[in-house]
Specification:
By secondary structure, the chain is an alpha+beta fold. Helix content is 53%, strand content 19%.
C-alpha cells in the first residue's frame, strides 16, 4: 500500500485529534446531562475525520474505497447523536425514548449496510474512480439514489437539532447565550462545508469540505466545553430549577448588573420588572439599602433581613456568593433569599410553648420526669427535686431504677425486658401506686402515671409522680375512725335493742294496767283523776310508738340485702287503717281512697311503716275534722304515692326541716318528735325512691314517696 501525505489530510487529522480530545473529556463527564450522547457524537466525528485522513493519504483506489466505507460508521452516527444531544440539552429529552431511538436508527443502519455492499447494487455510489488531476490522488464518487435519500434524512435531523438550539438561544437567559451560540457556530461550520461539497461550488473539487468544517466545530466546542462548561451548566437545568424555585434568585455580572432572575425574585421585589436585565442591582434595591449593601460583598452567608413586602414586613434569609470561570476569574454573583417569616414565627411560638411548658413543669408540685429509650433521666423538674431530694445536676443521665427500692428494681427490669421482646405494657398508660426511694434511702408511697411516645425511631417515657404520704396517713386515720364508728354504732344498736326490749315489757304492762284501771274504777274516779289516768295511757302508747320506731330505724340501717316483691297496696292500706283505727276514730278523720292501686316494687313491712307515719301525721296535723285523700300517680318507671290533708300548711322553713332525724315542728298546741319522717326517708331511699312534701300556708300539705314500677 502506498501513501501520500497532503495538507488537506493534515488539516483533517488535526480536526480528528481535537475531536478525540473532546471525546475523552466528555467521557469523563458522562454523569452530566447530555455528556454520554455528546461523547458518542464526538467519537463518530473522530472516526469520520481520521478515516477520511487515511483515505486522502492512500494512493490506490481499493484502499480509498475501504477507508470510505469505514468513514460511514462515523457518518451515520453524527446526525442522530447531534439531534439527541440538541433535544436533551434544550430540555426535550422526553422525545428520546427507546422506540424513537430504534426508529431513528433504521436508516443509518441500512445506509451503513449499503455502503459495505455497494458493489452489488450501486445504490450509494453508482461509480468510483481515482482522480489524479490535482497534486494528490482523490476518490471521485458518482452518488446513487440512496445517498441523496440519506442526505435528506441527515439534513432533517440536523435541522430539528438546530431549530431546538435557536429556540433555546432566543428564550434562554443572557447567562446561557454564550454557550448556546458557541454550539450553533460549531454546528454551522460543517453545514457550510457539506453544502459546498454537494452543490458544485467547492473550490477543491472532489474533496469533502464537511470535515474541514468539523475542525472549526472542534475548536468551538473546545472553547464551549472549557470556558462555558456546556456539559455542567445547561439552560434546561436553569429552567427547571430557577422557574420553579420558591426562593428568590438574581444573577449578577461582574459589574453587579442583573443578567438573570426567577419569578420568585420578581414577586418579592417590586422594582424588578421583566425588562430589568442589564440594570444595576443598586437601582433595583434603591428602597432596600440593607440588601443593596450585601450585594457589594463577595460572600454573605445567611444573614437575616426584615424587608417590606406589600403592607407587611417579611423576614428573609439572604445569601450572596461569587462564581468564577474555569480560570478562577470572577464572573458575577448569585443572590438567593428565602422567606422565613412563617419559620421564624413558628420558632418563636415553639420557644414560647417550651417556656410555658417549662414554667408549668417547674411550678408543679408533682414530679415530672422524662426518660430516654434506655430509661435514663433526661429531664427533672423542681417538684421531682423536692420529692426525691436529688438536684437536677446530680440525677440527669442516671437510670430510673435509682428512684426505686430493691424489689421494685427487679420488677422494672423484667417489664423492660418484656417490652423489648414485643410484649404488651402493664404499667404504661395507667396510674398506679408504688413505693419511691429518696436520696437518703428512705421510702415513701407515691402515685405514678407513666406514658410513652415515639420521636423518630426512638421511644421516650414520661412519668408524673405524686407523693401521697399525707393522703395515705389521712386514709389510715379515716379507716381507724370508720372502724371506731362501726364499733360505736354496733354498741349503739345493741344498746338500742337492749333498751327497747327492756322498756317494751314494763311499758306494755303499764298500758295494760292503765286500761284495766280505766275499766274497773272509772265510776269511782272524779274528773281530774280520770283525766290523769287517760294521760298515763296516752303517754304510754306514745312511748311504745317511739320504741317501735327506734327498732325500725335500727333494722333499716342493719339490713344489707332487701328482699323486694310486687306490693298489694290495697291490703297494706287496710292493715294501716286497722293499726290507726283508734286514732282515726278519736279525731273523726274522713279518708278518701282510690278504687285501685298501681303495682310497685318494695319491701312490704317497711312500706306499711311509711304509710303509718304519713297517715298518722295527716290525722294529727290535718284540719278539724281531718279530711284526708290518698292516691298514686304513675310517672314513667316510678309510681308516686301521696297523702293530702286539709291542715294549715307548712312554711318553706318548716318544709326544710322535715325528714331530718329528731327535728320537730312547733305549732299551736301540736308537737311531734320528728323521728318518723327521718325513718320514712331512709326506708324509701334504700328501696330506690325519694320522699318530699308540697305545701303552702292555708292550703294544706301533700306528703309523697316514690317506688319503682312492678
Amino acid at each position: 500500500m502506498h501513501w501520500q501525505l497532503s495538507p488537506y489530510a493534515i488539516l483533517v487529522s488535526a480536526g480528528g485529534i481535537i475531536s478525540a480530545m473532546l471525546t475523552i473529556s466528555a467521557w469523563r463527564r458522562r454523569p452530566e446531562t447530555g455528556a454520554a450522547i455528546f461523547t458518542l457524537m464526538m467519537g463518530g466525528v473522530t472516526l469520520w475525520s481520521l478515516t477520511n485522513a487515511l483515505e486522502l493519504s492512500a494512493t490506490r483506489l481499493a484502499a480509498k474505497i475501504i477507508f470510505a466505507k469505514v468513514e460511514y460508521i462515523g457518518i451515520v452516527i453524527v446526525p442522530v447523536t447531534w439531534l439527541c444531544f440538541a433535544l436533551q440539552y434544550t430540555g426535550r429529552q422526553k422525545w428520546i425514548t427507546r422506540r424513537n431511538l430504534a426508529l431513528l436508527s433504521i436508516i443509518p443502519i441500512l445506509t451503513l449496510g449499503l455502503a459495505w455492499t455497494n458493489e452489488t447494487h450501486g445504490l450509494l455510489w453508482r461509480s468510483t474512480r481515482l482522480g489524479t488531476d490535482g497534486s494528490f490522488p482523490v476518490l471521485v464518487l458518482t452518488h446513487g439514489i440512496w445517498f441523496w435519500f440519506y442526505i435528506t434524512f441527515s439534513y432533517i435531523a440536523l435541522s430539528i437539532g438546530t431549530l431546538s438550539f435557536i429556540h433555546a438561544l432566543i428564550h434562554s437567559p443572557r447567562l446561557f447565550h454564550g454557550q448556546t451560540g458557541t454550539l450553533l457556530v460549531g454546528l454551522f461550520a460543517p453545514w457550510v462545508g457539506n453544502f459546498l461539497y454537494l452543490s458544485g461550488l467547492n473550490p477543491f473539487p472532489h474533496l469533502d469540505l464537511t470535515l474541514v468544517g468539523f475542525v472549526i466545530t472542534g475548536l468551538a466546542l473546545s472553547w464551549g466545553l472549557f470556558y462555558y462548561r456546556i456539559l455542567e451548566t445547561i439552560p434546561v437545568a436553569r429552567n427547571v430549577v430557577m422557574e420553579q424555585m420558591s426562593d428568590g434568585v438574581i444573577v449578577l455580572d461582574h459589574q453587579n448588573r442583573v443578567i438573570d432572575f426567577n419569578p420568585a425574585a420578581q414577586s418579592f421585589l417590586e422594582n424588578l420588572r421583566p425588562d430589568a436585565i442589564g440594570t444595576p442591582i443598586t437601582d433595583i434595591l434603591s428602597n432596600l439599602p440593607a440588601m443593596a449593601e450585601c450585594c457589594h460583598k463577595e460572600n454573605v452567608e445567611f444573614t437575616e433581613l426584615a424587608l417590606p413586602v406589600g403592607n407587611k414586613e417579611r423576614i428573609f434569609d439572604l445569601r450572596v456568593s461569587l462564581f468564577r470561570d474555569w480560570r478562577g476569574t470572577p464572573q458575577g454573583k448569585l443572590m438567593i433569599w428565602r422567606d422565613i417569616t412563617e419559620k421564624k414565627g413558628a420558632e418563636e411560638a415553639i420557644r414560647k410553648s417550651e417556656e410555658r411548658h417549662r414554667s408549668v413543669t417547674q411550678s408543679s408540685n408533682d414530679a415530672i420526669i422524662l426518660m430516654d429509650s434506655d430509661w435514663r433521666i433526661i429531664s427533672w423538674n423542681r417538684g421531682a427535686e423536692n420529692i426525691f431530694g436529688y438536684s437536677e445536676e446530680k440525677i440527669l443521665g442516671q437510670p430510673a431504677t435509682r428512684l426505686m427500692p430493691g424489689h421494685y428494681k427487679q420488677l422494672h427490669l423484667e417489664e423492660v425486658k418484656r417490652l423489648r421482646a414485643g410484649g404488651k405494657p402493664r404499667v404504661i398508660g395507667k396510674t398506679i401506686e408504688y413505693t419511691g426511694k429518696r436520696e437518703g434511702g428512705s421510702t415513701f408511697p407515691v402515685e405514678l402515671s407513666l406514658a410513652s411516645w415515639e420521636a423518630g425511631k426512638k421511644t421516650f417515657f414520661s412519668a408524673i409522680i405524686r407523693d401521697i404520704t399525707a393522703r395515705k396517713q389521712a386514709e389510715s386515720i379515716q379507716h381507724r375512725y370508720a372502724k371506731e364508728l362501726e364499733a360505736q354504732n354496733a354498741e349503739l344498736d345493741a344498746f338500742a335493742h337492749t333498751v327497747a326490749h327492756d322498756l317494751k315489757k314494763p311499758l306494755t304492762e303499764l298500758i295494760g294496767f292503765s286500761s284495766l284501771l280505766k275499766i274497773q274504777i272509772t265510776e269511782t274516779l272524779n274528773e281530774s283523776q280520770s283525766n290523769s289516768l287517760q294521760k298515763i295511757e296516752q303517754n304510754a302508747l306514745k312511748m311504745g310508738n317511739i320504741i317501735d320506731e327506734l327498732l325500725l330505724l335500727a333494722s333499716v340501717r342493719d339490713m344489707k340485702k332487701i328482699d323486694t316483691h310486687p306490693l298489694d297496696m290495697a291490703k297494706i292500706i287496710a292493715e294501716v287503717r286497722m293499726r290507726l283505727e283508734y286514732m282515726i276514730g278519736e279525731y273523726q278523720a274522713e279518708l278518701v281512697l282510690p278504687e285501685c292501686w298501681p303495682e310497685a316494687i318494695g319491701y312490704r313491712p317497711w312500706i306499711e311503716e311509711v304509710w303509718v307515719n304519713y297517715l298518722s301525721n295527716a290525722v294529727q296535723y290535718g284540719g278539724r275534722p281531718p279530711h284526708i285523700q290518698m292516691g298514686a300517680t304513675v310517672e314513667k318507671e316510678t309510681i308516686r304515692f301521696w297523702v293530702r290533708d286539709n291542715g294549715e300548711g307548712l312554711s318553706p322553713d318548716d318544709q326544710a326541716q322535715l325528714f331530718t332525724a329528731f327535728e320537730r315542728l312547733h305549732q299551736a298546741s301540736i308537737e311531734g318528735h320528728g323521728l318518723g319522717l327521718s325513718i320514712v326517708r331512709r326506708i324509701v331511699e334504700k328501696l330506690g325512691g325519694r320522699v318530699g312534701v308540697e305545701s303552702r300556708k292555708g292550703h294544706g300539705s301533700t306528703f309523697f314517696f316514690t317506688l319503682p314500677c312492678a
